[in-house]
Amino acid sequence: MKISIITIVYNNRETIADTVESVLGQSYHNIEYIVIDGLSTDGTVEILKGYENRITKLVSEKDGGLYDAINKGIELATGDVIGFLHSDDIFHSQESVTFIAEAFKANGTDSVYGDLLYVQKDNTNKIVRNWVSGNYERKNFLLGWMPPHPTFYVKREVYQELGLYNTYFKSSADYELMLRFLYKHNISTSYIPVKLVKMRVGGKSNVTLMNRILANQEDHQAWVINGLKPLFFTRFFKPLCKLIQFI
Length: 247
Description:
Elements: E1 3-9, H1 16-24, E2 31-37, H2 44-49, E3 57-60, H3 66-76, E4 81-84, E5 89-91, H4 96-107, E6 111-120, E7 123-131, E8 153-155, H5 156-162, H6 173-184, E9 189-200, H7 209-225, H8 234-240
Parallel strand pairs: 1-2, 1-4, 2-3, 6-9
Antiparallel strand pairs: 4-8, 5-9, 6-7, 6-8
């Protein structure tokens, strides 16, 4: 099974090497590694070129934002399964992709997901939030649940059938896609009860209170655009679900 891992980066020379090394250091070797750079100007590209002979596909060009860049990566991917490791993230261990591949082989599902650690930007051993996903139940989307996007790996054929990321959204296209795939179209999934990824804190949708409010509005719009009806409290429960991750 070939697994395509896509990294999106723009002007992030401080951490991009950590991300690349994390992918290249995986014990699972049937990996297609694709890096999409948004025409960085801070030295990121020069760092990436140092790994050029070990990166399967390296693209550096202007894009229409994060989700446009993600879609470019998906369209370039030739693996059986597609996942992402962005430029602030690293795998939790050298076995992370092995766990993912084994879950697909054992369960035969269309997708898999696992657990995620939010860590300090300057110290990836310092845990800020512990996101334990739990087993999948479709109804939990109504209670604000979602799988951690950085751990969500999907068969390429699902993207071909159900579409890519909706670039209408500025911060919630990942939520919309998982809602569309899992809740609307009922693709099969399985939970890997293992920490797969470490994500540095400071994601776009969580930087400020206003960004969080706008992201919450987009979360609601994700239901509307798919012709789905959430419960009246769904949009408010989604941020509340995060509180337990700090315990």
